[in-house]
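Handout, section B. The chain below has 336 residues.
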Amino acid sequence: MKRWLAMLALVAPGYAMAQGNLVLYCSVQEEWCRAMLTAFERKTGIKVAMTRKSSGETYAQVKAEASNPRGDVMWGGTGDPHLQAAEEGLTEEYKSPMLKELQPWAVKQAEQSKFRTVGIYAGALGYGYNTELLARRKLPEPKCWSDLLNEKYKDEVQVADPNSSGTSYTLLATMVQIYGEDKGFDYLKRLHRNINQYTKSGAAPAKATASGETLIGITFQHDLVTFASQGAPIKVVAPCEGTGYEVGSMSIIKGGKNPKEARTWYDWALTAEAQSIGAEAKAYQVPSNRNAKVPPQAPRLEQIKLIDYDFAKYGSSAERKRLLSKWDKEVKALPK
């Protein structure tokens, strides 16, 4: 028995092999979710059941299951739904010992939520265009948010629905912060004329741009870089007016069936080792652990004109509900 235990210790240094289960709601791309799951199971011996949905969909599921929680951890996706879940008491307070290794913006996310969520990566909003399609159609090169309103791009722009997508909610909140609410909504109404599809997932427009299904995709810049690094004809744009950004987050679901395993995942996912898995899965966000290597392909946040995004305000339950309701009535309901 002693020999067997010694062998297990060699397999998983730093972690005692445990038998247990974890239900993970993952909101990054499927490949990254799978890579994290595999590494965690190998490291800890805990078996993971994973569901992949966009962050808005995951929040809706956690809220619907509040009386009988089925999940243990929400991992990934924009921070706004995590902050809303925290405010509504859907997630547990937990101060990980790993907080001391995190970037200030990740710790601030934890502090604002009273330690009911934490930042795990950051990424800037933007858009990309298919260079081959642009040249073939002899269209102008867009460099600013305002350029996307050009009538020459009618039915050429794709973006997600902010009700299901944290990425697109970040766009909505960004326009309100750049232009003010009235002018921000006016921008979104004019942009609506050029939209060919509102997708469920925030990353879907990046894939559509890479394949030539759409000319322009609005999403986080790192999602576009994933396809560009694989040879897709994509030019990534950091809009000239400035742009919003996300603090991708992680939360423990209140009342989950496996609280011990949830905390084990939480601590492990904040390590530099775990955060290096993103780059291996061709995910190019900026990791929150200061000791984690930033992928060379990752958009350099210090070189992008980022707005002073108000996460506390736009992650609040009341403001998020109000803006989404207004978008449904004033933008999505408009004829093309």
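Note. Confidence is low (pLDDT under 50) at residues 1-16. Compare this with the example in section A.
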